[in-house]
Write a structure and sequence with these properties.
The protein contains 10 helices and 14 strands. With 254 residues, it is α/β, with parallel strands linked by helices. It has a single domain, classed as CNF1/YfiH-like putative cysteine hydrolases (4-Layer Sandwich). Strand 7 and strand 8 form a beta hairpin. Helix 6 packs parallel to helix 9.
C-alpha cells in the first residue's frame, strides 16, 4: 500500500492506494472485511464505515453527510456490502468514514478541502471526464459543504499515462463537447498507425483549473499502470481485470 504524501504529510487526512502485492499477500482480499481491516491497520485510523463507489463512468457524485450516512449504511446491507451505486465520486465531511474507488488504468482523483475539512475521491476514465465527473465533484464540495475551490488540494493516483493511452480518433468528438478545440488538440497526440495517445491526466487538470482549483495545488504520483508491473492494467492484461485485483484508492478524514 502507498499514500499520497502531498495530502497525508500536511493535512489531517489519510489516503491509500493498493498495488498487486496487497491482494497477492492476502488470501481473503476479495472480502471487504479483509480489505477494510488492512486499510485500518495501514492508515492507523479507527474506521467507522467504508463505502465503495459502484462505478459506471457517470458524472454522478454522492455526498455522504452526518444526516444521511446511517441511511446509506442500512441500504448497503440490503445490497452489495458497502457498495454505493451508480456513482463515480464520493464526498464527505464525516470523520473516519472511508471513501473508496477501484481502477485499472482510469485515474483516481483525491480531493481535500482543509478549510471545511471535506474529502472526496473520483473515478476518472475518459467517459467520466466527458460526463463532467471532475467538475461535478468539486461543485458538490462547494454546494454541499461551502468549499472554496481555491483551497482544494488535488492529487492523481496511479493511472495509464499519455505515452501509453492509445485511443481511436472518434474520442475527439466526445472531448470536443467539453473542451475547446485548442484543448482537444493538446490532449490528443497523433500516431503513425492512425490512432491517438490521450493525456487523461491533463484533461483532469484542465477540468480542475476550470473549477477553480489552483495549479500549484494539483499533485501527481506519476505512476503509469501500464508501464509498471505493480498495478492492475486492463489494457496491459488484455482481458477484464477482476475487481479484487484492481487498484483500490481510498481517502478518510482522520
Amino acid at each position: 500500500m502507498n499514500s499520497i504524501s502531498a495530502l497525508d504529510d500536511r493535512y489531517p487526512v489519510k489516503t491509500v492506494f493498493t498495488n498487486n502485492s496487497d491482494w497477492q499477500s492476502h488470501e481473503d482480499w476479495h472480502r471487504v472485511e479483509c480489505r477494510n481491516a488492512a486499510f485500518q491497520e495501514y492508515l492507523r485510523v479507527p474506521l467507522t464505515r467504508v463505502f465503495y463507489a459502484y462505478e459506471e463512468h457517470t458524472g454522478n457524485v454522492l455526498a455522504i453527510t452526518s444526516s444521511n450516512v446511517e441511511d446509506l449504511e442500512a441500504m448497503d446491507k440490503n445490497r452489495i456490502p458497502e457498495q454505493i451505486g451508480e456513482y463515480d465520486a464520493l464526498v464527505t465531511d464525516v470523520p473516519r468514514t472511508m471513501l473508496c474507488i477501484c481502477t485499472a488504468d482510469c485515474l483516481p482523483l483525491f480531493l481535500y478541502d482543509p478549510e471545511q475539512n471535506v474529502a472526496a475521491i473520483a473515478h476518472c476514465g475518459w467517459r467520466g471526464i466527458c460526463n463532467g465527473i471532475v467538475s461535478n465533484t468539486v461543485c458538490s464540495m462547494v454546494d454541499r459543504f461551502g468549499t472554496d475551490p481555491g483551497s482544494v488540494v488535488a492529487a492523481f493516483g496511479p493511472s495509464i499515462c499519455k505515452r501509453c493511452y492509445e485511443v481511436g480518433g472518434e474520442l475527439k468528438d466526445d472531448f470536443a463537447r467539453r473542451f475547446s478545440p485548442q484543448e482537444v488538440e493538446s490532449l490528443f497526440t497523433a500516431r503513425t498507425n492512425g490512432k491517438f495517445l490521450l493525456d487523461s491526466r491533463r484533461a483532469v487538470a484542465l477540468e480542475l483549473l476550470r473549477a477553480g482549483v489552483r495549479q500549484e495545488k494539483i499533485h501527481d504520483v506519476d505512476i503509469c499502470t501500464l508501464e509498471s508491473d505493480d498495478y492492475a492494467s486492463l489494457r496491459g492484461e488484455g482481458a477484464y481485470v477482476e475487481a479484487v485485483r484492481q487498484t483500490i484508492s481510498g481517502i478518510v478524514l482522520a
